[in-house]
Amino acid sequence: MKCFSIFGKDKSKSKKRETRSAPELRNQSESSDNPALSRTTKSLPSPRSIPELYKEKEHNLRVFSLDELRDATNCFNRKLKIGEGGFGSVYKGTIKPLSGRGDPIVVAVKKLNAHGLQGHKEWLAEIQFLGVVSHPNLVKLIGYCSVDGERGIQRMLVYEYMPNRSLEDHLFNSTSTLPWKMRLEIMLGVAEGLAYLHEGLEVKVIYRDFKSSNVLLDENFRPKLSDFGLAREGPTGDRTHVSTGVYGTYGYAAPEYVETGHLTIQSDIWTFGVVLYEILTGRRTVERNRPTLEQKLLDWVKQFPPDSRRFSMIIDPRLRNNYSLNAAQKVGKLANSCLNKNAKERPAMSEVVESLKQVIQELEEASSSSVNNSAGPSSSRNGTRRRSK
Hints:
alpha+beta; Phosphorylase Kinase, domain 1; Transferase(Phosphotransferase), domain 1; 2 domains; six-stranded mixed beta sheet; two-stranded antiparallel ribbon; 11 helices; transferase; kinase; EC 2.7.11.1; Protein_kinase_ATP_BS; membrane
C-alpha cells in the first residue's frame, strides 16, 4: 500500500542537543494546514486542544537517550527488526524499568527514517496524541528520543511490545487464519478504541489512518490501534469538518475526504466499514493480481448483498464453513451502513460497538445452545455455518 500524498520536509532547525521541550512539541505541531490545532480567540469557551492536554501529561512519558536505545536494540541490530513502514524501521528491544529495579521491559522502538515520506511532524503528532489518550485498545507510548547532532536528527518512539504483530499479518497470511469469533472480537475492540477517540475525550480525535496493518495484537490477541502520526483533532464549535491535505492509504479513505479534503469523524466510520469487509472476505482492499472485476474489494462485494443467497460466496474460504452465516450477514449489513455515501447517515462508532456486541452475544448463545443439545441426532459443530432449507 502506498500513501497518496507526499509529506514535505520539516524546515525547523535546532541546536545540537538532546531535547525534550514541551513548548517545541506544542508550537511545531500547530501548523497552518491543521485548522483544528490552530485556535482563534472566541468569546465562547472551547474544549482544550491536544497540545494543551498534552502539557498536563507530558511528565508521564520517558525521555530516552540515544545510547539507551542503542543498548536496548543491540545497536539497532537487523535481527531485532520487526517491521518497516513510511516512518522507518521498528525494532524489538529491552529497557530497564524507570526505577532501575525489576525485570527488563520488552518494547518496540520505532526509528524515524530521515529520508522517508513521513517525518518530524508526524513524530510530534504521535507523541502528543499518545501522550494524552489512554484506553485498553490503543497502543501505549512509553517514551521518545530526540537528538540533533553532527550525524543529523535522531527521532525515535518507544511503545509497549505487541507480540502477535498486526491484524494484517494474520488476516492475509496464507499459512494460517484467524477464527471467526476472534475476528469479531478484534473488530469490537477496535470499535471501542475508535469510540473512545470520537466520544470519550474532551476533544474529538479523528484517527484518519485506520487499516488492518495499524491494528496490533497483544499476547491475548487483544487489538490496539497504533500509528497516530496522521491523527487530527475533530472540528469544534460550529465547524462541520477539518480542512486538510489528503493523507492516508489508497483504498481506505472516505470518498468525500478524498474529493474535498474535508475530514470528519465519519471518515473513520467509512474506513471501519472497509476493514469489516476485509475480515469477512480475507481479501485486501485492493489486489491487482485478481481479475479486473475483483481487484477493488468494495466494488466486488457489491455484487453479493448481505441479504442475498449469493452473500456466502464472498466469505473467506479459509474459514472452511466454521462461521455463522447469520452473524456474517449482520456484519455485512453493518459494514454497508458504515459505507453509506451520505456521511451523515453513517452510524456513530458507539452504535457500531453495540451492534458488534449483539452479534457476538448471539453467536455465544447459539454456541451454548448447540453444546446443550449435542446429545441429539441433529446437533452441529459450534460456530459453524448452517444452511437454511
